[in-house]
Specification:
heterotrimer, A mainly alpha, B alpha/beta, C alpha/beta, A: mainly alpha, MetI-like fold, 11 helices, 0% strand, B: alpha/beta, D-Maltodextrin-Binding Protein, domain 2, 5-stranded mixed beta sheet, 39% helix, 17% strand, binds adenosine-5'-triphosphate, binds magnesium ion
């Protein structure tokens, strides 16, 4: 067995062992079933919720919110980041505002976002976009500023237009950093959507987790937590794939 | 509101922390025994606060700590592990689910009941709909947007089922909008909702601001004598130290009685208001002159028929079926307290 | 003499390193004839790259003038530089890298792809048009950089040690290729190198620079001894080659020693 296969086996066996330990601990009353439940009971509930379509409904709506909010945040983050990174006047105008507002915990902005964007879908998109845009801006700026000088020299030597400097040099040059920013902000998106949904929504994974806990439907809550984890894993895998496709020259 | 998720995380951590923790209560006879009670911090819990302020708990050798917002599902892990001794709260589906899962919780005394003349709850309707004559009778509730605080089934929609029934209506005749309690007034103001079951002081605040009208008192649609807030004990008082539980209920009943008597006096409000201002978010003294106070049953009685009505409602609306609700009640403590205090007789009444 | 293609007059460049002034170039005056291949040799740090960057417009002179003459009516770009470091864009494939200058000049996709293909063929990159740089060898990457410069068809080519990082065999092959391409196009070239051999075999004239601050120490005429087209093997076996080599080497040795004394 080579190391790669061993790693693959480990990545399956470890979670399986943990689940087994959980199940055993629950059955032997080492942990309190009433609050921790057990994987088998959660799985049973999972199947029930899957068959009723309830789980899929909540997952898809969360996914849609993340997707739209994330796209808005990433696209505007890249555009703003490129401008700040390449145009000194834009940097002078925006950098202080960005630096000052970046440390505000985005979850704390939720009530404000709800006041501005209402209780509907727009506020969900907005809070995710806000969470994403900062990380993408900051990474894009730093990506642009760390582009090797030689590439900018080539651009200047061939009299590339400002637009071409954006699209052909700065953007691809900063892409590794941008994607790194996207990966971090995906985690942030999940946290924000779950919070936003538990605060003001009628659907979504966060709503599921919060409301089922409110009425003490423990297994359902764990199914919600599990789905949030699955969602996180899938979205991370998606971004890893995106990274491989978009920046093949950085492949290690 | 925003803290919900943080709280959820906190609760999960608390569960984890609680696994191996068995509280070691020093059964010292001199030092007062500490009792931790989860509360919401609302007017319906008045009896508890009066008892605390009058020193009745201290007289029983108890040091009572109120843990704000530690109620409902958030409180179950703490109750099960003995980190919390009791809670004040309503009978919602979470309680039925917890009991069905084997969490040991019993209803030991009533904190607040809906009886005629004490209309701390009401069906509140957007003023515009009354002014323009849109709503005159029960049947006019048809087509309105009804505010509820949680997804079905829960307590506010239980009330909705009751007042809609007064006009021969069902859920399909109205539209439900989920609004957390703190946002109810603004939802009424913006027309996000047209009607809702509200409690004090929200009803009075909405009326004061000419946003809504206190249309029908809760006693016109709730099951008669419904106990909406109930003192509940966990295993630490039920099993380990029932004597402490008895002393607690005794002190509480003295508080409830003092509260009841005080409000019967002309100057009573002036005495009670500062106590409630201390323990609840309602800090404006003048509003206490206009609100309807909550009725704290002076003998701590719990209306089982009212609970049955709620339980049946939950069970028939995709909620948990708690079975025989009389089994949820444990009247040992109330009985012991009444033995010491005797039945309540309103002085002068 | 015909009008020069490039005219440098009294070029000075001073860098400030904190509070210390570093004179990289001191009074460079030079004419380069159209179609001339001029090599520049000099000790490390004498300002060769600086001179090329000033001609390329990537750096400004502290004083002095640079003039690049254009043929009347020409729309060709003034210069294209092949850099000392690796400079192909890792995110563009070979074809798009080679066509970068053409894209900047506004040629459409099909047009510029058609324009770069013959040059890619000439530098031996046929079949690798779609490859990304990380899939190429160091020599192939340098070919891409050269193709990019040639494809832009500039008035003057600036090449800064384009083969310095390559192994000896690859270097020999690329030198021969460069010579062939250059003889076809007869571009004006300024070619910086550390290799005396390279300077002699490729150039019409060799400019030997002094140690920092860089000055024109001597300009050696090779062309009259080795007319075009040239055969590298024949050049190397000629006795004149040895003479040139000895001459340039002795000039350089003095300067390299001067440079190491200064820095010691
Ligand atoms: N941007 C700069 N800031 C400060 N000093 C510089 C800068 N660029 C070059 N120099 C200095 O100018 C001098 C000439 O540098 P240059 O790169 O032109 O040398 P070179 O002849 O190309 O050397 P090499 O053969 O090693 O490439 C050096 O002393 C260098 O340190
Ligand atoms: Mg150099």
């Amino acid at each position: 067995m080579n190391a790669k296969m061993l790693n693959r086996v480990l990545s399956v066996v470890t979670p399986a062992l943990l689940l087994l330990a959980w199940e055993v601990a629950s059955r032997t009353q080492i942990i309190d079933f009433r609050f921790f439940s057990a994987p088998s009971a959660i799985f049973k509930e999972f199947v029930v919720m899957l068959e009723s379509g309830e789980l899929l409904k909540h997952t898809l709506i969360s996914l849609q919110r993340i997707f739209i909010g994330f796209t808005i945040g990433t696209v505007s983050g890249v555009v703003i980041g490129l401008a700040v990174g390449l145009i000194p006047a834009v940097s002078a105008a925006l950098k202080p505002i960005i630096d000052a507002t970046f440390p505000i915990p985005k979850v704390g902005l939720l009530p404000l976002v709800i006041i501005i964007f209402g209780l509907g879908e727009a506020s969900k998109y907005a809070i995710i976009a806000i969470g994403v845009v900062y990380l993408v801006i900051i990474n894009t700026v730093s990506g642009v500023r760390h582009i090797e000088r030689i590439y900018l020299d080539v651009g200047r030597n061939y009299h590339a237009s400002r637009l071409m400097m954006f699209t052909d040099v700065a953007l691809p040059g900063a892409l590794p950093m941008i994607i790194a920013g996207m990966k971090i902000s995906m985690g942030v998106s999940l946290i924000l959507i779950v919070s936003a949904e538990s605060l003001a929504a009628k659907s979504g994974i966060g709503y599921l987790i919060w409301t089922t806990w409110q009425v003490f439907e423990v297994e359902k809550m764990y199914v919600g937590l599990f789905m949030a984890a699955v969602l996180g894993a899938c979205l991370t895998a998606l971004l890893d794939w995106l990274e491989r496709v978009m920046i093949p020259w950085k492949r290690v | 509101m925003v803290r919900r998720l943080t709280r959820l995380v906190g609760v999960l951590t608390a569960i984890l922390a609680a696994i191996a923790v068995t509280p070691s209560r020093a059964a010292d006879k001199v030092a007062p025994t500490t009792v931790r009670i989860g509360v919401i911090g609302i007017l319906a819990e008045a009896g508890l606060y009066v008892a605390a302020e009058r020193g009745y708990f201290t007289e029983e050798g108890l040091n009572v700590e109120f843990l704000k917002d530690m109620v409902g599902a958030d409180a179950f892990p703490g109750l099960a592990t003995g980190q919390i001794d009791g809670v004040g709260g309503s009978f919602g589906p979470e309680l039925a689910n917890a009991v069905l899962r084997g969490v040991r919780i019993k209803l030991v005394a009533g904190l607040n009941s809906y009886i005629p003349g004490w209309d701390a709850g009401a069906l509140t309707i957007r003023k515009e709909l009354i002014d323009n004559g849109r709503v005159k009778d029960w049947k006019d509730l048809k087509g309105l947007k009804i505010g509820i605080t949680a997804p079905l089934p829960n307590m506010t929609d239980f009330f909705a089922s009751r007042y809609l029934a007064q006009g021969g209506l069902t859920f399909s005749d109205v539209e439900f909008v989920t609004v957390p309690f703190p946002n109810m007034i603004s939802a009424l103001k913006t027309g996000g909702i047209d009607a809702a079951h509200t409690s004090e002081p929200m009803t009075t605040l909405a009326v004061d601001n000419k946003i809504a009208v206190k249309w029908r008192p809760v006693s016109t649609y709730a099951p008669p004598g419904l106990t909406v807030a109930i003192l509940q004990f966990g295993p630490s008082l039920l099993d380990k130290a029932p004597d402490v539980g008895e002393r607690f209920v005794t002190a509480y009943l003295r508080g409830a009685r003092y509260y009841d008597e005080a409000l019967a006096r002309p100057d009573g409000k002036a005495e009670i208001a500062p106590i409630l201002m201390k323990y609840t978010p309602l800090k404006d003294r003048s509003i206490y002159d206009r609100i309807s106070f909550s009725y704290a049953p002076p003998d701590g009685e719990i209306s089982v028929t009212g609970l049955e009505a709620m339980s049946t409602y939950y069970a028939t609306h995709n909620g948990p079926n708690a079975g025989d609700v009389s089994k949820l009640v444990d009247d040992r403590f109330q009985k012991a307290a009444l033995k010491r205090l005797g039945l309540y007789k309103k002085s002068g009444g | 003499m015909v009008e020069p293609k490039l005219r440098l007059r009294d070029l000075n460049r001073r860098f400030m390193l904190r509070d210390r002034a570093v004179d990289a170039l001191a009074g460079i005056s030079l004419d380069v004839a159209p179609g001339e291949f001029l090599s520049i040799v000099g000790p490390s740090g004498c300002g060769k790259t600086t001179m090329l960057r000033i001609v390329a417009g990537l750096e400004t002179a502290t004083s002095g003038t640079v003039e690049i003459m254009r043929e009347p009516g020409s729309t060709r770009p003034l210069n294209a530089m092949v850099f000392q470091q690796e400079s192909v864009f890792p995110w563009k494939n070979v074809r798009d890298n080679a066509a970068f200058g053409l894209k900047a000049r506004g040629f459409g996709k099909r047009e510029r792809y058609e324009m770069v293909q013959p040059i890619l063929d000439k530098v031996g990159l046929r079949g690798f048009e779609d490859a990304l740089p990380h899939q190429l060898s160091g020599g192939m990457k340098q070919r891409v950089a050269i193709a990019r410069a040639f494809a832009n068809d500039p008035e003057i080519m600036l090449m800064d040690e384009p083969f310095a990082a390559l192994d000896e065999q690859t270097k020999l092959i690329l030198q021969a290729e460069l010579l062939r391409i250059w003889e076809e196009s007869r571009k004006t070239v300024m070619y910086v190198t550390h290799s005396i051999d390279e300077a002699i075999t490729l150039s019409d004239r060799v400019l030997v620079m002094s140690a920092r601050p860089g000055r024109v120490k001597e300009i050696i005429d090779i062309k009259s001894a080795f007319p075009r087209p040239r055969d590298i093997a024949a050049v190397k076996s000629s006795p004149k080659y040895g003479e040139f080599f000895g001459r340039i080497w002795s000039l350089l040795r003095d300067e390299v020693m001067a440079a190491s004394l200064v820095s010691a």
